[in-house]
Amino acid sequence: MKKHLFINGDWKEAKQYAPLYSPYSGEQIAEIAQADEADVEEAIQAAQVASKLMARMPASQRAAILEKAAAIFEERQEELARMLAMEAAKPLRTGRTEIARTIQTYKFAAEEAKRIHGETIPLDAAPGGEGRLAYTVRKPIGVVGAITPFNFPFNLVAHKLGPAFAAGNTVVLKPASQTPLSALILADIFAEAGLPAGALNILPGKGAVVGEKLVRDNRIAAITFTGSPEVGIAMKNKAGLKRVTLELGSNSALIIDDTVEITQALIDRCAIGAFSFSGQVCISLQRVYVHESKYEEFLEKFKQAAEKQVLGDPLDEATDMSALISPKDHQRMAEWIEEAVSQGATVVTGGKQVTDRLFAPTILTGVKSDAKCSCQEVFGPIAVVTPFASFDEAIDMVNDSRFGLQAGIYTRDIQKALRAADELEAGGVMINDIPTFRVDHMPYGGVKESGFGREGIKYAVEEMTELKLIAIKL
Ligand code: NAP
């Protein structure tokens, strides 16, 4: 299967193609066009031309296109979940959840398209402002460059296309090299939904070629990036005056205090948080701080839950966890665990590969706070569990991180819950849930090295529009 570039409503052959392999089976599943600089140039020009049409398109029509796209996703959900299993090794059940969320994201975008509005400004509040009527409107920003990661290739792309089209913008999309199929299929879905040619251009290819040109080109009005902190931070330095939204990584933490019963429901949430999609989730539960009075009980039950995870083929209905995105990541997991153990950590369960494609869900204790498994983003199936004696200490340990995407706390003590809400350094605090909770209309984004700006359709629309003031002298 040969997949081309999608520019200005047409498929275009590229000069070069690269093989795409399934992370689980290792089989070649497609040959993917690799865009070069000239292709990016063509896509930007097409998006610029189409941006005039999109900016004039009535809100009802933009909403209808997004609604139709959501409806097509609904009809094709099983096929799309299978695509995720093939190219990302996402287990079918996890993939179906992603598709269900993607449908929600496009539906929220359709609704948001209808309520992009400004406000009236009482200019007479300032001396000299009398006799004027003023109001604001939100104008589409123009061409949006969207650069996306491999881990939620449908839903995180939807978080870029949805608000961009809702606001009347056009997009040049550069998907992750490992997950181009899920992006390229959007060409058909949006064409069927009625999106004009040029409004969506899809350019698989190398980050250092396609991504780099999008970030530097002045005709791109906004870059919306989801990916690793290293790439994102470098991007902000190159983007000049264009709008930049960065959704980056984290080493998310959870506090479980002494007022909480260690129920099976809590353990199940922690297992989902730590091991879903093998921990390759930006708000995966990586650090768990448990009050010392509950520590042993939590650890024993959490270990049992980890050992119940079913590892295997992503296309198998029973599978909870499958291959990590690349063999390099298996190697990295092993090295990081080895480093922690050499500094005195204990492997409670897992800690090694079970086959050449599968890594066991792993729980570590006694990990030093400066060990990579704790202070860097693991992005794999490793959770670090640490006891604490005082609540102050727990808050300090969560905050002892260069990241701050989301944090969680389980407590029955309202004072502690509100203190955590106030003091935890994160873009979102989940009380009585894991940090991994997200639905698609909530404001979502990080502080510190976890990012810049917010997604969640309404908030992304703000990032992708320009506020304009109109003042009329009466
Ligand atoms: P990544 O390696 O940073 O790649 C993300 C995207 O950036 C890919 O499309 C990649 O292309 C591209 N890229 C690479 N180098 C580039 C450059 N120099 N200029 C422009 N673009 C470049 O991240 P990933 O491994 O796919 O995804 C995992 C990371 O994403 C984790 O850190 C995770 O926490 C983060 N993430 C954050 C959120 C959030 O909402 N905060 C959500 C999901 C994931 P190639 O694939 O071709 O290299």
Characterize the structure shown.
- The chain is of the alpha/beta class and 474 residues long.
- The chain folds into 2 domains: 273 residues, Aldehyde Dehydrogenase, Chain A, domain 1; 187 residues, Aldehyde Dehydrogenase, Chain A, domain 2, CATH 3.40.309.10.
- It contains 15 helices and 25 strands.
- The protein has a 7-stranded mixed sheet, with helices on both faces. Strands 10-9-8-11-12-24 form a 6-stranded mixed sheet, with helices on both faces.
- Helix 2 packs antiparallel against helix 4, helix 5 crosses helix 15 and helix 9 crosses helix 10.
- The mean pLDDT is 98.
- Bound molecules: NADP nicotinamide-adenine-dinucleotide phosphate.
- NADP nicotinamide-adenine-dinucleotide phosphate binds next to helix 7 and helix 8.
Number of domains: 2
Low-confidence stretches: none
Query: Quaternary status of these chains?
Result: single chain
The CATH top-level class label of the largest domain: Alpha Beta
List the ligand species. Answer: NADP nicotinamide-adenine-dinucleotide phosphate
CATH superfamily membership of the largest domain: Aldehyde Dehydrogenase, Chain A, domain 1
Percent in strands: 15-25%
